[in-house]
Amino acid sequence: MSILQTPERERVVAPESHCNNVSQRTVGESHLHEGSHGCNHAHETVPFVLIDKLVSNDRLTAANQSMVEENRLVASMDALGICASTLCLFHCLAMPFVIGALPLLGLKFLEGHAAHVVLAGFVLAFALSAVVPGYLKHRRKDILFMMLAGLSVVLYATFIAQYTVGESWEVPLISIGNLTLVATHLRNRALCRCSHKSL
To answer: Could you count the other beta carbons within 10 Å of the beta carbon of residue 185?
Structure first.
């Protein structure tokens, strides 16, 4: 009887041990799968963080480039404004000395009042194109006030002075107004550079 019972016990035990091994393997494989999925999730989050950083850096670079372009445009308008004010000032100061030679040089149109009007128009356009965008950056009200004061004096001397205070005041007033505008353009350009470096 003992000889016959031994194989039966072995037959009964063997399936149980085999099932246990299978279950242990299944549980172990499930843990491995869970661990592998967890590692995959951990590895998947790293590229997203890097992508977010790259996108934010690209946005900052684009913003800085646009700001540089705006500062260059303001600087160009300031330079043109300085040239226009200087040319207007030189035109008024030199006209009494070169008015006789203008017809010989074919520049007789420069002695008329229309030349003053055209130069004043350029002074006005370049001042507004440079100082207003610059003011939106540095928010300095004194620069805005200087521009308005300089333009007011130049426009008054060009269009009104000859009817109110006489033509003798035209050159001094235009000189004061244009010198004020030149100082305004120089200060505005310097402030725009400082505001860009501080960012």
So the answer is: 30
